[in-house]
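Narrative of activities, Objective 1.

The group set out to show that a structural description can be obtained from nothing but a protein's sequence at a throughput compatible with the screening campaign. Below is one input-output pair from the validation batch, recorded exactly as produced.
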Amino acid sequence: MVEGILGKKLGMSQVFAENKVIAVTAIEAGPCTVVQVKTPEKDGYYAAKLGFIEENGKRKGKEVRRYRYLREIRLDEGQKLEVGQKLDVSLFKAGDKVDIIGTSRGKGFAGGVKRYHFRGGPRTHGQSDRERAPGSVGSNTNPGRVLKGLRMAGHMGNQRVTALNLEVVQADPARNLLVVKGAVPGMTNGLVIIKKSRRAKK
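Output recorded for this entry:
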């Protein structure tokens, strides 16, 4: 069976367990429809294309089935799915470990202090314009250039982020609800991909 599903982040809350409060994130996980199955013979690899959030659409005056989100989930050899098959949150159960992929919040153009937590320059002895400056970006005679990947001001956020080994607190197929321990990357109502963790400690 496929080990992943698409979902929508609903927001954070808290649950009480073992005399302590646990921060959790609620996700509307599925149901997803298998739109296409890819095979090595035809496409070179195993994968399933999943559609999430069905919307009504028209093409040449005819009603067609459309999905707001389409994403591929890789399959292992031997896993078989059929086009039209439905996948829901019953793939997971409480106690499972999952990896959740989302798009981080976009922060726009940010300086080094906000982006990389630089401490800035001195605040005294007349250095009034150095407070949030990054400092020297060059090097000495050798190599005599700015190195690739140097941390500088630039676009912050709006990147693919994966949160690893999050514990499933609750899985409710009746409400398509998945509750996981901890924070999940992305905005509220943002698309997330939930996969069974391959790095979970045994």
